[in-house]
Design brief:
The chain has 269 residues and is mainly beta. The protein has two domains: 5-185, no CATH class; 188-266, Carboxypeptidase-like, regulatory domain (Immunoglobulin-like). It is built from one helix and 22 strands. The strands form six sheets. Strands 1, 3, 4, 5, 8, 9 and 10 form a seven-stranded antiparallel sheet that branches. It has a four-stranded mixed sheet with strand order 6-2-12-15. Strand 17 (202-207) and strand 18 (210-216) form a beta hairpin. The radius of gyration is 23 Å and the shape is elongated. The protein starts with a strand and ends with a strand.
Length: 269
Amino acid sequence: MKKSIFLILAVAMLTGFGILYSCSKSDDSSSSETTKFEVRMCDAPADYLEVNIDIQDVQIHVADVETEKGWKSLKNVKKGIYNLLTLTNGLDTALADDVFPAGKISQMRLILGENNSLKLRNGDVIPLKVPSGETSGLKIKINSDLKKGIAYTLNLDFDAGKSVKVSGGGKKYHLKPTLRAFAVATSGAIKGQVEPATALPQVLAINGTDTVATTITRESDGKFLLRGLPAGTYKVVFLPKEGFQTLTKEGQAVTIGSVTNMGKITISQ
């Protein structure tokens, strides 16, 4: 059976992961408690023609105490063999993205297959072996929180030059990955609560003439969350059902990585 290699990556300071939300059509009790993120990988130059790694999965750990059940695979993992040396000088590639419950994330790991290889300057292709001691992974606790409604990106800097170890008088090559990880929040959000909840308005976040995001208040309590907003100042428009009056709130400032709370908004009949 083909063995997978577990590499556990962590971020010392994790503000989160992500990609931008452009439009949210609804905001029920489940979607309003989630965050969206993207994992991207880049590399530093190395003195080889190719350094190929076989990525099979990207996982995060969502519990304080590590158990195998605590590991969750991201949904949209781009499996395959990646030549790290094509990801230098500002170039990167998306490895995975997902919508995940907001809250604490303790660890992260890549799962590699066995098809890792190295192409030397003379054209020779050498299989890259992973030392048996590395199969248990490199573990670092992070215990960080993802804010609901905020989009994030996690950048993985895979240093190919330092990750390839040479032994046996230059005849044996091993893969002992060296990675640096840093996270960046890429959006903000606006939340609030409409009274009465029975008004059930559609809520629009408008920047200039552009409607950036829309949602519908939650029927049970009137709460709403406009997600994935770029930094700026927004006009928030409430379009309630028949029998209630349209309401506009100007000047709602949004900053990256934060949720602007409009508090309670009363819709008149």
